[in-house]
Write a structure and sequence with these properties.
The chain is mainly alpha-helical and about 90 residues long. It is about 70% helix and about 5% strand. The relative contact order is 0.12.
Length: about 90
């Protein structure tokens, strides 16, 4: 398996792992999303100056306003973070 293929598997399985803990198995509740952010992106939360910023991130992930985060909405966050990291790495 290539590195990119392995990365895709990790993204899908990570989303499914957290989505399966409550409610629907194909979406994240706010609690599941917060746990995912806390465990999988701890540096993002450390950069947040207060808990309200984390809530803003969670709310911004829910593009359709249904109080759930589906895989597409999750991937938009991942892609945005990846683009931000790319910009930082190319400037360094």
């Amino acid at each position: 398996m290539s590195q990119l293929e392995a990365a895709i598997v990790v993204l899908v399985s990570t989303f499914q792992q957290y989505a399966a803990s409550q409610g629907k198995k194909d979406t994240l509740t706010n609690a599941e999303a917060k746990t995912l952010l806390e465990k999988e992106l701890p540096c993002l939360l450390k950069a947040a100056k207060n808990p309200e910023e984390v809530d803003k991130v969670l709310k911004s992930m829910d593009l359709d306003g249904d109080n759930e985060i589906d895989f597409s909405e999750f991937m938009i966050l991942v892609a945005s973070l990846t683009c931000a990291c790319h910009d930082l790495f190319t400037k360094a």
